[in-house]
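quick one, 379 residues, struct below
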Amino acid sequence: MKKECVTMLLAGGVGTRLGLLTKNLAKPAVPFGGRYRIIDFALSNCLNSRMHTVGVLTQYSPLELHKHIGVGKPWDLDRMEDGLTILSPFTEKDGGSWYLGTADAIIKNKNYVERYDPEYLIVISGDHIYHMDYDALLNHHKEKEADVTISVVEVPWKETSRFGILNTTDNLRIYEFEEKPTNAKSNLASMGIYIFNWKVLKGYLEEDAKLQESKHDFGQNILPAMIADNLQLYAYRFDGYWKDVGTIESYWEAHMDLLKEDLSLSLNNNEWRTYSHDSNFAPQLIEETAVLHHSLVNNGCIVSGKLDHSILFENVYVDEGSVINQSILHPGVRVGANVFLERVIVQENVTIPDGSKIAASKNEEPIVLSNSNLKAVTI
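---
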């Protein structure tokens, strides 16, 4: 059962800044890209990187997420000896408790990790959009003879206060970690993707678990302690597309990014595919009255209206005379005749009456439309 590397995928995020999108849904289970859920990108990275021992740590509102993940079949993780394992919160003493932080989530699943006796542990997040070869990251870790390797991406300076920022030497050795700094010294942001030497990490996790005042978090507690002890921490520069879809604006932007021809993240990339479940809807039907411009339309859709820079998930119906502009329609949405939508995110199974007009200006956050607020936002 020994494995060189075990992957721990953190998928318990609440995603409070996504508002209605995560009201009853874990952030990694939120639909994305016309036919996927956010977690599909991390799971597909595991498959493409040949990382086949994956523990998925769930917590907040996990029902739909568990149903979607199942036994991991779409990602070739339905295996006998390793594969995918869902790890829900528990304790051996009192039966159950929430994970208190990212570090606490790992140490509470120490027995799962140690059954494989790994040299390395990869910790990733289930709520980011990106394509990444974790095997290349592991090779970088080995070449540097590092204790810890953290994948980083350059972010705009004005956004550094949203991220954990790493300060490094010229050879990318990390000498300081700043959690959401007001005045950052660097714009190298942690992607929340870590490789640890497991035996080193285990000791720090066990000591951290004893500290009542700790937040039990990698960024706030574990990594600063390792830096203070002068361990070998290195950054790994990632130069591809990466998006933290933590807000309504960033979620909408990430969808609009998919429609850019020069985007490095391509859902049509046969060399690095993104996998998910196939619901087996019939092919899309584009009626003769339809006009489509630079839009993604999935199976089961019937379009009689006009689409412009929009994304339709499965089984969406758009009636004649309707105009859908820069909008995202989740599965099962029904749009009546002569409807106008602009910069709108419509949640699953919402029916929009004939003649409705719902729009957000360029200076406003996109509107999230559900059955509960449909009447309030309709003009």
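Residues 154 and 188 are 5 Å apart (CA to CA).
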